[in-house]
Input
Amino acid sequence: MYFNQGKFQATVVCFILGLGSLVAWNSMLTVGDYYYNLFPTYHPSRVLTLIYQPFALVTMAILAYNESRINTRKRNLIGYTLFSISTLLVLVLDLATSGKGGIGPYIGLCALSACFGVADAHVQGGMVGDLSFMCPEFIQSFFAGLAASGALASGLRLLTKVGFEKSDHGLRKGAMLFFAISTLFEFFCVILYAIYFPKLSIVKYYRSKAASEGSKTVSADLAAAGIHNDTNLQVGFDAKQQERLSNKQLILQNMDYAADLFLIYVLTLSIFPGFLFENTGSHQLGTWYPLVLIAMYNLLDLISRYIPLIKCLKLESRKGLLIAVLSRFLLVPAFYFTAKYGDQGWMILLVSFLGLTNGYLTVCVFTVAPQGYKGPEQNALGNLLVLFLLIGIFSGVALDWLWLIGKSGF
Output
């Protein structure tokens, strides 16, 4: 059928665009060992994340509030372009300073971290809103791509550590390779979203359907696909637009889903990545230990995002989701006592479970919540849920500093 043509290609593109949404930021997080070597007293893993999040959160709040009036195509292209430029500038900054530490380069790195936050708000909210009125497989694939960016970054980091460990300035060479690859990938995402994605039959079908239901955000994407949507500007259009639920109504009807996402990411970011770099002690793996922990989290986070594709394993009960989300907070004492008394095997197991539950619950919420709404409402709800996700991330990043209480030198 016409509306199913190109479904596989669209699913693959959603995965790649999801990967491009976080690959640059995950590259910065994954080379944390390099930044701890460069800026040993500045807590780079925690500080860079803490700077990134307010910019992402404030930008997302503004964009979510004005979602119905924003050109989604322009929003996403701005986001991916900003990712490309910022990633390139991280590379340029390091080359210009010859890989030397100090407060100047660190401030520059913090500024670029803020740019990543602004880009993330453009892309993640824009893409999730856009995909929320398409089939659930697309949004699942996009979130799998988000997780894959972490898994890919971790895998490459382990390879570069092996390849450059014994060479001069090995950490730096590995980090520079990371950002070079990320820059090229972000540019590829710009081309893919601008040219290929809007012309797929199934994408054109869903966007045309959303436009017929009153959505104005898809007009530029339809025009890029050669569809001029003037036929939808008819008498019934304004009436349909007025029937759309307001953002406040959408939030009130989906407050449990918003709470789920907030609580999922409060917990995850209060542990990952700062706690894993600074609070897990020294073990047999030595300098490999935090990299292995990050890699295991990212790998299980990725795998778990495909579990909801198996219908019988997908959690769709609203009450069940909330119970599962609240149960994860038992991980806080588990991490505390494992870091204090356990060995590295137990910590690797806990980190894996953290990633497994994070990815699985995220996909369940985002694929279930938009069901039953019209296109413009699904777009708005997608943006609002991403906003609560980012509030959770920001809160988690702030709470992550509590692990440092009582540590010497803090």
Observations:
- The chain is about 75% helix and 0% strand.
- Confidence is low (pLDDT under 50) at residues 231-237.
- The longest helix spans residues 103-132.
- The CA atoms of residues 158 and 291 lie 7 Å apart.
